[in-house]
Amino acid sequence: MSRSPSLPAGPVVGPVVGMAVLVLPAVAAVLSYLGLLPYDPIAQNPPERFLAPSGAHLFGTDQFGRDVFSRVAAGVGNSALIAVVAVAFATFAGTLGGLVSGFYRGVADGAIGAVTNVLFAFPPLLLALSLAAVLDRNWFTIAVAIAIVYVPIFIRVTRGPVLSLREIEYVKAAVATGQSRWQIMLRHVLPNITSIIVIQVALSLSWAVLTEASLSFLGLGTPPPAPSLGSMIFEARSLVFVAPWTLIAPGVVVILLVAGLNLLGDGLRDTLDPRNRGR
After folding, report:
1. Quick one: which of 37, 65, 180, 213 is 20 to 30 A from 121 by CA?
2. pLDDT exceeds cutoff 80 at 275
3. 41 preceded by a cis bond (ω within 30 of 0)
4. Closest CA to 81 of 267, 199, 257, 269
5. What is the pLDDT of residue 138?
């Protein structure tokens, strides 16, 4: 009796573990978006300040009597919104730039490569800090600042495979049949680099969440009173011996978000990488 081939355990486990780690933050974000949080995340209630975690307040309360669970859930929602918008913009602009740079070569490749090299010359967090300091402080401008940081990464990730694909026989055949360059890029080249883009999106989401938390921690994130995980950690530094739950809750959630998205990205890379097939 023949046995059916089994899938490699390693590549499958990675995405599953990543998604499992992201379940709790995802549920919290959904509750925030649907307005189903137990308390208003910005409403102050001084008589209930510094309450320890309990059934009434799962993560306790802070120095203003605000429910920490509600604030963490709203913070996850804000961070997720900024990260998704930033990575979506970076994916579109970076993929387009990589396609044009790799397929057209010549002047286009030189110009895009020059811009990419300039952006890569700055440390990512320093560049994000500079852009966030110049732009008006709201969630959209923070997302734009983070997106600009990650556009050159998508350009580099996309350009290399495009350089190889443009020399493949079926692409040359498409050129010979008179198809336009844009038709060839969208029909024959882009579908073959989709897996690479998906992997980079998952990894960039984790970096975007961490960058947004860092900006908020340094006072350049979403302005108060909107909850942010980074600003909550900053405010809780002086309360660590009085109310440690105000620091532990947002800190653990940031770790879960970043670790879960990294595990998901690594797992997708192992699963979608052709070199892993048949192992």
Report:
1. 213
2. no
3. no
4. 257
5. 82
Is residue 2 within 8 Å of 241, Cβ to Cβ? no
Q: Running DSSP on this structure, what letter comes out for residue 237?
A: G
Answer whether residue 9 shows pLDDT above 50: no
| Residue 51 DSSP class | P
Q: Which of 73-77, 122-126, 195-199 has the lowest mean pLDDT?
A: 122-126
Residue 213 and residue 79: Cα distance in Å, rounded? 8
User: Which among 214, 206, 164 has a CA at the least distance from the CA of 189?
Assistant: 164
Structure tokens at 68: 């920490």
Owner of token pair 């038709």: 183
The pTM assigned to this predicted structure is: 0.85
Residue that is written with structure tokens 């105000």 in the block = 246
Q: Token pair of 235, please?
A: 């405010």
pLDDT of residue 13: 65
Cβ atoms 240, 260 nearer than 8 A: no
Distance between first and last Cα of the chain: 22
Neighbours of 266 (CB within 10 A): 18
CB-side neighbour CA atoms (13 Å) of 133: 7
User: Residue with structure tokens 């800090």?
Assistant: 129
Tens of pLDDT, residue by residue over 208-256, are 999 999 988 988 888 877 888 999 999 898 888 999 999 999 999 999 9
Look over the chain and give the mean of its residue pLDDT values, rounded to a whole number.
85
| C-alpha triplet 155, 186, 145: angle, nearest 5° | 30
Number of helices (H), then strands (E), belonging to the chain: the values are 11, 0
- Residue 61, φ and ψ in degrees, nearest 5: -125, 165
pLDDT digits (tens, 9 = 90+) for 61-81: 999 999 999 999 999 999 989
* 261 contacts 12 by C-beta, under 8 angstroms: no
